[in-house]
Amino acid sequence: MKILVPVKRVVDYNVKIRVKSDGSGVDLANVKMAMNPFDEIAVEEALKIKERGDAEEVIAISIGPAKAQDTLRTALAMGADRAILIKTEETTEPLAVAKLLKKAVEDESPDLVIMGKQAIDDDCNQTGQMLASLLGWAQGTFASKVEFGDGKVNVTREIDGGLETVALKMPAVITTDLRLNEPRYASLPNIMKAKKKPIDEKTPEDLGVDVTPHIKTLSVEEPPKREAGEIVESVAELVDKLKNEAGVL
């Protein structure tokens, strides 16, 4: 079995986002970038499947600028076998990403695509579902557990009411949730080895996909600062304020 794992380069989750002074977007100058945390979980799950003997190859793929190679090298250092970069300077929307991944799936013929349920920069939570639809494959989203048996993959999903387990016929697309696993740290020797590994580069034009954005960002602004709270002396005073000032009761 071959597994394809899409990974995205995003602002590190520890970094406090700054909005550009003109409100045109997020300021990325001198900002630490990293692999999307949900994609780290996807890479880890693919590696665990390989280590159990259920897969022979794990391929990492990313879509973005040349600097996205760093994200792919992180995946290689974790244990991925190969890496592919679809290089573009355009801001890619979920549907364009899904179309590019569909072409990659057709070229590589994986049995399974495992990806993060969403990216922490736009929080769209759309690409996995769109990819499964374009491919006509089964999908298991928000996975908190993945098991194989009888030619199927059983995915336990986190839903509003609790947990739901679905049996998917292969090939399939799985999107990962936070509780699926704890991603490993790449060792220093593996990081050094990953720097020397070749990365296969393609462009959207090579794949015949138009990635021109269809959504225009009018403005970006920071959320209003949270106002300071107020300390009350008694429960009666709290109830009074909730009733007469806040209008909650």
From TrEMBL:
One GO process term, biological-process aspect: carboxylic acid catabolic process
MF terms (GO), sorted A to Z: electron transfer activity
Sorted alphabetically, which SUPFAM superfamilies does this protein's record hold?
Adenine nucleotide alpha hydrolases-like
Does DNA damage appear among the keywords?
Answer: no
Q: Which residues form the Electron transfer flavoprotein alpha/beta-subunit N-terminal domain?
A: 23-211
Q: Which cofactor does it need?
A: AMP
Which family does the similarity line name?
Belongs to the ETF beta-subunit/FixA family.
Describe, as the record does, how this protein assembles with itself and its partners: Heterodimer of an alpha and a beta subunit.
The task this protein performs is described as: The electron transfer flavoprotein serves as a specific electron acceptor for other dehydrogenases. It transfers the electrons to the main respiratory chain via ETF-ubiquinone oxidoreductase (ETF dehydrogenase).
Question: What is the protein name for this chain?
Answer: Electron transfer flavoprotein subunit beta
The taxonomic lineage of its organism, from the top, reads: Bacteria, Pseudomonadati, Pseudomonadota, Alphaproteobacteria, Hyphomicrobiales
